Amino acid sequence: DGKAKIREYLDHRMARHNEILAILEIENSQFTSDEIVAIIYANYPKSLWSSAKKSVNLHLYELEKEGRVCKISNSASEVKWALANL
């Protein structure tokens, strides 16, 4: 069923959004996307983490566009993310 598959995809996407937000809620923390990947994908082979990082970054950029997260540092080597002050 096509509609059910689309709903499943959207539910998974929203769950990942919420998972990233929950990580950033930990004592007003700041995390790099690598650190977020290490938490979310801890039980997956590290060989998958590069692809996972691309997905996490897309979620972070979308959450930033929605005003829910923001970049804290933007040096050439490291970007940290935190919850936006709403």
Give a short overview.
The protein has 86 residues and is α+β, with helices and mostly antiparallel strands. It has helices at residues 2-24, 33-40, 49-65, and strands at 31-32, 69-74, 79-83. Residues 32-74 form the LACTB2 winged helix domain.
SSE blueprint:
Blueprint lengths: L1 H23 L6 E2 H8 L8 H17 L3 E6 L4 E5 L3
Antiparallel strand pairs: 1-3, 2-3
The appropriate CATH architecture is Orthogonal Bundle
Radius of gyration: 14 Å
N-to-C series of helices and strands: HEHHEE
Determine the oligomeric state from the structure: single chain
Q: State the major sheet.
A: 3 strands, antiparallel
Ends distance = 39 Å
Sheet with most strands: strand arrangement:
1-3-2
Total individual domains: 1
Task: Specify the structural class.
Answer: alpha+beta
Give the % helix. 55-70%
The portion of residues forming beta strands comes to 15-25%
Low-confidence stretches: none
Rough shape?
Answer: globular
Number of helices: 3
Average pLDDT over all residues: 91
| Total strand segments | 3
- CATH class wording: Mainly Alpha
The CATH topology corresponds to: Arc Repressor Mutant, subunit A
CATH superfamily: Winged helix-like DNA-binding domain superfamily/Winged helix DNA-binding domain
GO biological process, one term: secondary metabolite biosynthetic process
Protein name: 8692_t:CDS:1
InterPro entries: LACTB2_WH, Sec-metab_biosynth-thioest, WH-like_DNA-bd_sf
Pfam family, one: WHD_BLACT
